[in-house]
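Notes, Module 5: Reading structure tokens.

Key idea: the token line is not a picture. It is a compressed description, and you learn to read it the same way you learned to read a sequence, by spotting repeated patterns. We will look at two proteins. The first is printed below with its tokens.
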Amino acid sequence: MAKLAPRDLAQVLSELPPQPHDPNVLVGYDTADDAGVFRLREDVALVQTVDFFTPIADDPETYGRIAAINALNDVYAMGGRPLTALALVCYPQKEDLTVLGRILRGGLRAMNEEGVLVIGGHSVDDAEIKFGYAVTGTVHPERIVRNAGAQVGDKLILTKPLGTGAITTAIKRGAASKEATEAAMRVMTQSARRASEAMVRLGAHACTDITGFGLLGHAYEMARASNVCLRIDCARVPLLPDVLELIAQGMLTRGDRNNRAYVGDAVEFASDVSREMQSALFDPQTAGGLLISLSPAQAENFASEVDSFIIGEVIEKRGPLIVVM
């Protein structure tokens, strides 16, 4: 199940009536950030997000774990600390409920390992399985890491390789190798907590997590919100095993087309960037990595602490918002 096309969703949101102004709303949906932030008092604000999706792994517990890690990513991307979660369950009433139990168990274990308590949830009888969480966390109002603060001269860091969309599509079609499958599952169950803590300590200027809109879709939102241009060196962008080969075989979701339409003319590709690599950069991710904008010195410090990749830099805005070399 893919997200709604981002361009269509943006159009719908733009037509909503304005809400009453509240100075305690520190981050809303106007810059397409990863989570909403509401100030409770001078030293604490709530971070709130929600995410759920159809099965992305054959093993129910792995699916539940991925759903938990994916939902927590949004809080971590804002520099927050997740505290509680509510489970969202869509499941066929007539199907084997032991499978649902295993999904819930996988998610619960992942949440508890991150210090997060699942305190409730909601279920619906649905022909198609869907699972995820609404997560609440906290952050100091002066330490929020938005997608809107990237500064000219910053380095761009990516904390996970790309390709989970192509690989999970190939898994469904029986075309994924064992190596690619295991690598994708390993990446999707990897927590962003350590990366989040490091970026906050090192003074990250901006961050977003890479999920359904792909690297370029979320990079586009960061560049637009920050009023800068992002230059990405595709040779430095890490990919999971077999990704370009699978894309060449047509292992793509409609997210590839939707994400291309969303970014549109805001991205400029060098002539030697292959069509397959372009699709890898647009590939929708699940529980993907963080894209972080840090000063050059701190980017090196971050890379020495956290397994990550410096994939580009922030430059002055000039025509396209993203340049891919």
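Here is the second protein, with the sequence above and the tokens below, as before.
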Amino acid sequence: MYWVEIISFVLFVVLMFIGYKANKRNIMLLASIVLLIGLAGEDFISGVSEGYKDATASSSVL
């Protein structure tokens, strides 16, 4: 996941530069979403999978 963070940051910088120069707010929004997914995506996915495992484990006990 280390490479995903680096790639997302580089992509963020490139898209932000392009969006700023072309005065395109949607491209800058896309850059922010890419950065968010790149930096928080791993923690979000692991949290969801842990919660799903705990929910299925607790329901199988009943």
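Summary for the second protein:
- The two ends are 36 Å apart (CA to CA).
- The chain has a mean pLDDT of 90.
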